[in-house]
């Protein structure tokens, strides 16, 4: 494979804090040299990144695909191409993808399918199956990135304890959505004066704090590594911080939708904003953004969840929850940077080195010897979401929103996966 020299970009490596104008040389699938004024070698392809940002390709820890299963409304190939279009080099399929990632055969199938896909695709396995444990050990041996509850809270504390203990025995992360099931079941909206007036079945924000406190206690009891999956409230963030003060081995993720929208958006009863977990109050949204800056949030996830258009085109309470978000992950974070709410290095950390550190991945950093998973993008480019077409055609909460950022080049293991006209 001939090499590539990326010239004169603003090179940002959130893992080390490096943020300088420099060149990056790629050869044999890895980054071999970083520095200013590197001389081109014979046969190298030159990529001019002047005025652009050169960063690690994004890593998304939670996207719900439609496989294993019938692939409706979106095949795994479409999901992977949408990830590439969004600058994502590594995509982790959620445990509840398709019919559920329940068996080692499901992990092996996804691994085999990934060989023909443009980006790295990993899979997380279900920790529980019905009222009992799933094949956790076999899935981890087959290569599961982590195990999780599939997005629905585990009501039985004893079952949650066994899942954490089993995963901990393999030194693997267990991801639990912090939600008190008795307060969440049947709800469609965050509890507020507005949602009560609208007559919606509501979910109080405290349900997240109650469950997070329980799960932290179980992690302490079992010695497990716990991911607080998609924290959405200030009260939930407080429990994450409390767990860290206890020196528990925990990580926390937040969904990109909840950084951009709040319960007022859902108050118009537009089914595009019917999400699970539901959109929260503005104070919660502000707390999530601040938690990225202070390091409480380790990773921002797309929480990509494609649903059929006909299932979304229903009255709000009857609409299927979910939104296609892969192509919005980078533009949404760039929009927060453009608004002055986040520093670009912090915004990139939670989609590069943050998730890489959780899973122990080599990618997610710009460093000599690291895999050449690299993104070149313009963070300032206006982006009206969907105006120029999208790979994923599933309904999205971001449709028509004014965001920022445009992907220009995506490299995965040194191969050019995506190249846009400047």
Give an overview in words:
The protein has 422 residues and is α/β, with parallel strands linked by helices. It has a domain at 57-151 and 159-176 and 200-359: Metal-dependent hydrolases (TIM Barrel, Alpha-Beta Barrel), CATH 3.20.20.140. 30% of the residues lie in helices and 25% in strands. It has 15 helices and 21 strands. The strands form 5 sheets. Strands 1, 2, 3, 4, 5, 19, 20 and 21 form an 8-stranded mixed β-sheet that branches. Strands 9-12-13-16-17-18 form a 6-stranded parallel β-sheet, with helices on both faces. Strands 6-7-8 form a 3-stranded parallel β-sheet, with helices on both faces. β10 and β11 form a beta hairpin. α4 (157-169) crosses α7 and α7 packs parallel to α8. The chain starts with a strand and ends with a strand. 58% of the residues are buried. The model has no long low-confidence stretch (mean pLDDT 97).
List the helices and strands and how they pair.
Elements: E1 4-13, E2 18-27, E3 30-35, E4 45-48, E5 53-56, E6 58-63, H1 76-85, E7 88-93, H2 104-114, E8 120-123, E9 125-126, E10 128-129, E11 132-133, H3 136-141, E12 147-148, H4 157-169, E13 173-176, H5 181-184, E14 189-190, H6 193-197, E15 202-203, H7 206-222, E16 225-228, H8 234-245, E17 250-255, H9 256-260, H10 263-267, H11 282-293, E18 299-301, H12 309-312, H13 329-338, H14 344-349, H15 353-359, E19 374-384, E20 402-412, E21 415-419
Parallel strand pairs: 1-4, 1-5, 6-7, 7-8, 9-12, 12-13, 13-16, 14-15, 16-17, 17-18
Antiparallel strand pairs: 1-2, 2-3, 5-19, 10-11, 19-20, 20-21
């Amino acid at each position: 494979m001939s090499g590539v020299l990326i010239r004169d970009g603003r090179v940002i490596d959130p893992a080390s804090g490096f943020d300088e104008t420099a060149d990056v040389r790629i050869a044999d699938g890895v980054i071999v040299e970083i520095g200013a004024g590197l001389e081109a070698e014979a046969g190298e392809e030159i990529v001019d990144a002047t005025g652009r940002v050169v960063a690690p390709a994004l890593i998304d820890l939670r996207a719900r695909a439609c496989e294993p299963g019938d692939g409706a409304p979106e095949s795994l190939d479409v999901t992977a191409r949408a990830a590439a279009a969004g600058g994502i080099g590594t995509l982790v399929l959620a445990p509840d993808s398709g019919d559920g990632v329940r068996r080692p055969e499901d992990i092996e199938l996804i691994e085999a399918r990934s060989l023909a896909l443009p980006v790295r695709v990993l899979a997380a396995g279900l920790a529980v199956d019905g009222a009992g444990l799933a094949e956790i050990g076999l899935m981890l041996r087959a290569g599961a990135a982590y195990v999780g509850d599939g997005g629905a809270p585990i009501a039985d504390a004893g079952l949650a304890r066994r899942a954490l203990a089993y995963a901990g025995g393999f030194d693997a992360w267990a991801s639990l959505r912090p939600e008190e099931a008795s307060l969440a079941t049947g709800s469609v909206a965050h509890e507020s004066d507005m949602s009560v007036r609208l007559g919606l079945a509501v979910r109080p924000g405290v349900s997240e704090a109650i469950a997070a406190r329980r799960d932290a206690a179980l992690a302490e009891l079992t010695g497990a590594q716990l991911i607080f999956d998609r924290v959405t409230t200030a009260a939930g963030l407080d429990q994450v911080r409390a767990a860290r003060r206890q020196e528990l081995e925990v990580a926390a993720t937040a969904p990109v939708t909840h950084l951009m929208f709040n319960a007022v958006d859902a108050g118009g009863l537009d089914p595009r904003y019917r999400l699970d977990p539901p959109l929260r109050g503005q104070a919660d949204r502000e707390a999530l953004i601040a938690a990225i800056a202070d390091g409480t949030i380790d990773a921002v996830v797309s929480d990509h969840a494609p649903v059929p258009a006909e299932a979304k085109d229903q009255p709000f309470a009857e609409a299927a929850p979910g939104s296609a978000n892969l192509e919005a992950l980078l533009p949404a974070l760039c929009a927060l940077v453009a608004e002055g709410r986040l520093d670009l290095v912090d915004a990139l950390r939670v989609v590069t080195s943050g998730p890489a550190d959780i899973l122990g991945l080599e990618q997610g950093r710009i460093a000599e010897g690291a895999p050449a998973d690299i993104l070149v993008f313009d963070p300032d480019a206006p982006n009206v979401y969907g105006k120029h077409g999208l790979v994923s055609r599933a309904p999205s909460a971001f449709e028509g929103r004014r965001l920022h950022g445009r992907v220009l080049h995506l490299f995965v293991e040194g191969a050019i996966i995506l190249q846009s006209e400047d």
